[in-house]
Design brief:
The complex is a heterodimer of chains A (138) and B (282).
Chain A: E1 6-15, H1 18-34, H2 39-58, E2 63-72, E3 75-84, H3 92-95, H4 109-116, E4 119-125, E5 129-137
Antiparallel strand pairs in A: 1-2, 2-3, 3-5, 4-5
Chain B: H1 2-12, H2 14-31, H3 38-57, H4 70-85, H5 90-112, H6 116-159, E1 164-167, E2 170-176, H7 181-198, E3 202-209, H8 215-230, E4 234-238, H9 242-251, E5 259-261, H10 264-274
The chains are: A alpha+beta (138), B alpha/beta (282).
Chain lengths: 138, 282
Amino acid sequence: MTAMTTLHSSGELPLKTERDIVLGRQTVRRLSQEQGFSLVDQTKIVTAASELARNALIYGGGGVLIWEVLLDGIKRGLRLTFKDEGPGIPNLELALTDGWTSGHGLGLGLSGARRLVNEFELDSAVGQGTRVTVTRWK
Amino acid sequence: MKNTTISDAFGKRRADIQAIWTKQLTSAAGSAKGRLSSTELEQQARQFLELFHPAVQSNQLDDINGSEWLEVRAFLEDLSRRRVLAGFSSDETALFIFSLKRVLFDILKDESAGDAMQMADHFWQMNVLLDKLGLHTVKSYQRTREEVINRQQHELLELSTPVVKLWDGILALPMIGTLDSARTQVVMESLLQKIVETESQIAIIDITGVPTVDTLVAQHLIKTVTALRLMGADCIISGVRPQIAQTIVHLGVDLHGVTTKANLADALALALKRSGIAFTKK
């Protein structure tokens, strides 16, 4: 992110139930459509949002999704932050390894989401929670 | 005995109350797109007052949960239910009770004969009472709405999983919408059941109508394919659109060993070929 980047609009959604994941996906799809993302880019950011929202709900015990529409010159972007106050991730490197899971999934959610976006940031402290920030530019 | 006077005033002026209230309800209903005829409104107002009067006479004005108010509560619950089904909003429904305030306050004002203290007292009692009845109406409205939504959810769950037979031994399952765990469970069960019933060899799962394929959806699909294989059937996944294909690649989901096709027609052609069925142009 450069110094030129400005915030156009933002909002927050709860992630407390399965239905919130659906609502989150729909919101991200609408936002990416409004920014004129191509169908492939829309699908990528929506899928990443779906993975991270589910992580926040299942592993983090629920949290929030903060969305921001960014402007950088003529570039438009969508930044999503997923925050939970769950148990946190003890080993970030391991968590980002393909196929590793602490639950029952495929172990591709976090690493896959990273490959679906342009910028990926992961902060986690054991016992305090996890924050994942992803950005996709048009 | 203050309450006796409310009850007295009510008894004395009941005909007036009914007439004015009915008029108010009818004029308000005029704006409510005529979903209720004035005859129906008049009937509802009369029925309500018939039940409300003895309840007021019982002098239990602070607690509408008692047996004195049982019939009034039941009437309001029934009214709410009918209004939900008729498509009324919650405020339109609650207005039935709240519109009675103006009417009763006017009557109490007339009947208090200038005794301000008594009038204030009566106003307060009546206000609290009507608020409680109004809230009860809204609560019933809400409950009925939730029942309707729950029923629809169940219906949707059933409806959204049709397994169709395309050919002898070939089944198709067109999936539409969000594949959350509850639905996928139903889908998988009905598909496996249908495979047994129809003794089919090939199942085509079409995901054209699934907007997002993330790792959870992919995992559900892989599990379904594995279960079908264990039953001796083959599975083809169709409707993999370009954007979905790219996303699956980035996610790193391994679909090796799962036959996939871009559309249902290709999948059917492949299924027919595998079944040894060929068509020729006449």
